Structures are given as C-alpha cells and as structure tokens.
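W.,

You were right to be curious about this one. When I first looked at the sequence I had no strong expectations either way, so I just let the prediction run and decided to look at it fresh. Below is the sequence, 87 residues in total, followed by the output.
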Amino acid sequence: MNTKSTEERVSALESYAFQTGRDLAEIKSVQREHTDRLATLDERMTGMSGQLAAMDERITGLDERMVHLEHGVGLLLDHYGIERPQS
C-alpha cells in the first residue's frame, strides 16, 4: 500500500498550486494580448465606418449629378429631335 506522509501531500499540493498559478498567469497574458488585438481591430473598424459613410455620401452626390446629367442630355436630345436610345 502506498501511503504518503503529510509533508509529501503538502509538497504535492504546493507544487500543484504553484503550477496552477503559472498556468493562470499564462492564460491572463494570452487574454490580455487578445483583448489588445480586439481593441485595435475595433479602432480600425470605427475608422472604416467613417470612411464608408464618407464614400456613401460621395456616391449619393454622384447619383444626384447623374440624374441631372441624364435630364440635361434628355433635354438636348429633345431639342435636336434625336430619338433616345432604347435601354
């Protein structure tokens, strides 16, 4: 029968506790790295959001200009009696 003394048990528990502490420290380190990466990605996404909003505004402006150009071209075609192409 394998019996351990109290000192051996305490030593084993201390060793286990020490290793668990090191494991927890490693987990926290990795977690901190991931949190930092997520924060960086969040900042990038926020910046991209602003860029997309600006691009959307530009596209809306271009759409409005296109409507005006189509209208102007239509007036010119009508003025000169030119048939509009079929789309």
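Here's what jumped out at me. The chain has one helix and no strands. And, maybe more interesting for your project: The mean pLDDT is 91.

Coffee later to discuss?

I.
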